[in-house]
Amino acid sequence: MNLLSDTTAPVHPALLAALADANEGYAPSYGADPLTGRLKERLEDIFATEIALVLTTSGTASNALALSILCPPHGMILCHDEAHIHRDERGAPEFFTGGGKLLPLTGEHAKIDPNKLAAALAEWPQDFVHTTPPRALSISNLNESGCAYSTAELQALTGPAREKQLGVHFDGARFANALVSLGETPAALSWQAGCDVLCLGATKNGAIGAEAIVLFGEARDRLGELQARQKRAGHMGPKTRFIAAQMLAWLEHDLWLDLARQANGAAAEIARLLTASGGAKLAHPVDGNEVFVRLDPALERRLKSAGAGFYAWPDGSARFVASWSTREDELAALAAAINR
Amino acid sequence: MNLLSDTTAPVHPALLAALADANEGYAPSYGADPLTGRLKERLEDIFATEIALVLTTSGTASNALALSILCPPHGMILCHDEAHIHRDERGAPEFFTGGGKLLPLTGEHAKIDPNKLAAALAEWPQDFVHTTPPRALSISNLNESGCAYSTAELQALTGPAREKQLGVHFDGARFANALVSLGETPAALSWQAGCDVLCLGATKNGAIGAEAIVLFGEARDRLGELQARQKRAGHMGPKTRFIAAQMLAWLEHDLWLDLARQANGAAAEIARLLTASGGAKLAHPVDGNEVFVRLDPALERRLKSAGAGFYAWPDGSARFVASWSTREDELAALAAAINR
Amino acid sequence: MNLLSDTTAPVHPALLAALADANEGYAPSYGADPLTGRLKERLEDIFATEIALVLTTSGTASNALALSILCPPHGMILCHDEAHIHRDERGAPEFFTGGGKLLPLTGEHAKIDPNKLAAALAEWPQDFVHTTPPRALSISNLNESGCAYSTAELQALTGPAREKQLGVHFDGARFANALVSLGETPAALSWQAGCDVLCLGATKNGAIGAEAIVLFGEARDRLGELQARQKRAGHMGPKTRFIAAQMLAWLEHDLWLDLARQANGAAAEIARLLTASGGAKLAHPVDGNEVFVRLDPALERRLKSAGAGFYAWPDGSARFVASWSTREDELAALAAAINR
Amino acid sequence: MNLLSDTTAPVHPALLAALADANEGYAPSYGADPLTGRLKERLEDIFATEIALVLTTSGTASNALALSILCPPHGMILCHDEAHIHRDERGAPEFFTGGGKLLPLTGEHAKIDPNKLAAALAEWPQDFVHTTPPRALSISNLNESGCAYSTAELQALTGPAREKQLGVHFDGARFANALVSLGETPAALSWQAGCDVLCLGATKNGAIGAEAIVLFGEARDRLGELQARQKRAGHMGPKTRFIAAQMLAWLEHDLWLDLARQANGAAAEIARLLTASGGAKLAHPVDGNEVFVRLDPALERRLKSAGAGFYAWPDGSARFVASWSTREDELAALAAAINR
């Protein structure tokens, strides 16, 4: 039972097959290939709006690149204290922005508390030369505690931010998991909820490494600068056709949603098994493919001795992550370990 | 006849097959997978020495990361005026070093003239607080004019640089092409020639995107810092097993050398066809898979009307690049176009 | 009654006179002048240890330069949430470190709570490649709420930090005020309390613009790098003799301590007047030259209509700052305004 | 005879006196003081146009700040190979721009050759994502070989640069020397000659440390960003009144021009003495206060044994710098040493 992370999972075979299909003859480099063009059109259908598009192989890079066109070196990015960009990217946003500042905000279940956002916006003015002004808001959905922001919750944050001219970034490393959990459309969970730039990740959901930076509305005007920064950061790989191919296969026939649904379903089952045992309490609601529980020592020992792979989270909880490839027999083994 | 670049070529089937083989079950992320471990051992055999290893998917990133551990923000990198790091990476070394300075040196056929190196080392002292001190030397082999530095030529540069405590970086995006052209061993063309950090590229020679940053000797002590910078730059993709798999397949049974030999052979034939026609003169020796010629206008027109793909180089020459996948029928078509 | 800030105060005449004295004939530039040499000796006497020394004209620059030799771009600086480096320097530490991260810690009266420090050190490990490791601790003494850390309080913070190999920076913009308040020696409040680099400021205490970055112990080995960064940041002004002259005059016959004592005394009187009126409550202990009070609306109106200059602090309190030049008649006018 | 540099000279007494005059009572910090306001008006008179103004104490800082609002991190600054910003500022422009690239151009007597500029603009396109686009042109006047660009020479450079939307920076560390040498108005040698941002230096011409960054025309819109960067770089010292006071005194009754005239006259006399001896040949025309000569070994020995202070320039010439304070007796001593 490897429930350590969705990045340890194998790649979905349809995406590997797409690589082979894409490998026919010559193709222009650096995003000028036909597959990248086709992907852009496909995403415009899916998001029901015009977009600008940049592809990378890394979620950290996508987030940092996106933030670097929203926040100047002398500006500030507001995010949750648990945000991946703050906790798990070794200062990538600081690097790509040229020294921007991240201000960690608190809130239950890794959701930014709108009151904390309001307080930060009040405390850090837009136009006082001595202090760093907030210029961007970053929201992860699905978030780092495995919780999904509803559209209303998103708007309660993006509304006040946009009023102050902040750019809005969504970290969508697990966007598909949030989508199927909430039953919303991609448009509703992105630009209609106040998002300027969405980092849409496939890597945690079946791909080798395929991430799309999707610019909406006026943010599309920043494509040129984004490409300059992408190139300069070594993230404009020459053979973009192989990223586009993965992502096209991932979107085809709603495969991305199916995989997310599968992962979310497995997580729900993991949560059910753990809590039903009486030896675990949910630390956060399970909205996607991640389960955070507080484990009794006895259960923890049983799980470990059965070789269950999970992660001790810094806050004292245990994190179990399901992926599209979590198998029935793994869940059965988990159940057996719990009830031994 | 697509002779625009070796990055427009398809991927070698053996590398795609290796991806599928690597896609079995779970694997630790971020370089802790068994394939990456095996690759390190394989490279230590090939280079006949102990190494430290970092994998990325981008040559620009590899170069910039390598330089960032050799040159501080207040230091200088010496390179040829035609160097890819200076001309074609949108300031990536400046970004990754935190504002280091590149000093472009001249020399025939994109080879740094040892006298120019000596002059620069004399002009820019190591210990004068007002001026930027040289801290790294970067050499491309195969270089940007398609020429190979011999081991003696390399030592004539790395010797004086090392005497002044400069770190030495080799850009080996086409290292295999240089190897087979010179008939040298990997060790002879790297650490034995004074190299601290080699960026060994497979992307231009059959891979989707696979680049190894190879640290030799004392440079291995900088692995920790290199990994911190790799992570921070978004170049520590989670699923390293798929980069390692490509590179292992590429090295297997000397495939990398065979592919390079094939590309070099095709380039030699292109050079022969062009010059034999009387309508083209070589601008540089053809040591690898790139051919630079000065074209007569008449021949240029004939080639263009036949749909030949090549690149107008900034210096007025025309660049033809062969790859492992350049086919006999393409060469025949080129011959036909030349002689029409 | 201008009690807005100690930077609005005039310069002490002895320091102006010293400028004229220093203006005799030619003097070597960039710190090689005899006055700078004499200042270094004087400071070594005062701090009772060997030091390395860099002079600037700006406290923000001194702090950021000092931090840039303690914390790499991929490292983290721990400081209080109210710290000047976090709140009032527009991201200077992030700029000078090349993108380092500041982690704001809490604690009463702008003093870092040792438990919060311990928690941060536990939460952010030293050697996990994905997270930003703490590399420096920054403490302001006198701090931003006008409070002084005792030597025991300092050691409770610097001890655990040094155990984890963090570099320790003291922001001493009001170091003299802390010294006279605590009755400690300069050595006791700096290197003996675990400080590697002290930014000793004269600007808020009588100078035009004179700040010393003082390196203790092993930190002295970083002088070369500090000078490189100082030059590169445009903070190695040519005519250092005029900074050294100011600081020598400031230290002469303990003038710096006299001026600090005067300012602290005026602040104590301001605090007494305000609280005695019943219309103000101290928000923080008054250990130096700053008074933070919560004002009754009636008293606030009276003060404002009398033209008293003070600053509305973001936390809702009112800040009154005394300087060496706060005059008896200003205190009398304040008393009159309070009691009108 | 100290002819090493104009930064070793003493400060003009009128400027010291102005400090004392400015030292009356309280004054707002950070540029809000009345003297800074008055200085802005005075400069608008002198330059016959509306300006925006920022003051610093350092020429290196002024140049780097100015360039940082003209050139993005992914852009390039064109300058002469001898430019102070390239040769003598330890990478300050690279630091302040966040990793911009300097492209050194050649040309006689440290003047950029317009053909070299044209070639660079052709070679480095504005809109190719892989290469660094020129975004700013930097011209020193008086330049690093002591030569003055005429208005026609300036326009031959700024015209083509502005056509390509480059911002134009003038390094005016010795602007006054160029002014009196050419007999032009300040307007003619700045905005009328295509300058967007002038760094006007008083430090080499009588001040302790006083530099004005003067924004013309549309560049004035970037004042907000410039101030943010000034603050963040630690160059917004609190007590701006003392910089403004120096500069006002310097401009009063054309003192700045008188001092420059005096320095230029002394340099002309030094050049006459050296060349008349037959032992020295001018390396460059003497347009300002700097003399570059190639010295016969015999004369060089005589000068050294007489204790003459001058600087061995990297190109093999000897640099003699006169300042406002070069005295008759020093010139007489030089003559004696030459003719001994």
What features would you describe in this structure?
The structure is a homotetramer of 340-residue chains. With 340 residues, chain A is α/β, with parallel strands linked by helices. Chain A folds into two domains: 13-254, 3-Layer(aba) Sandwich (Aspartate Aminotransferase, domain 2), CATH 3.40.640; 256-339, Aspartate Aminotransferase, domain 1 (Alpha-Beta Complex). The first copy, chain A, contains 13 helices and eleven strands. The first copy, chain A, has helices at residues 13-22, 34-47, 59-68, 84-87, 92-97, 114-123, 151-163, 175-182, 223-232, 241-251, 255-276, 297-305, 328-339, and strands at residues 51-56, 76-80, 101-105, 134-140, 167-172, 197-201, 211-216, 280-282, 290-295, 311-312, 318-321. Chain A has a seven-stranded mixed β-sheet, sandwiched between helices. In chain A, helix 1 crosses helix 10 (241-251). The longest helix of chain A is centred in the C-terminal third of the chain and has 22 residues, at 255-276. Chain A is globular. The model of chain A has no long low-confidence stretch (mean pLDDT 96). Chains in contact: A-B, A-C, A-D, B-C, B-D, C-D. Chains A and B meet through helix 1, helix 3 and helix 9 of A and helix 1, helix 3, helix 5 and helix 9 of B.
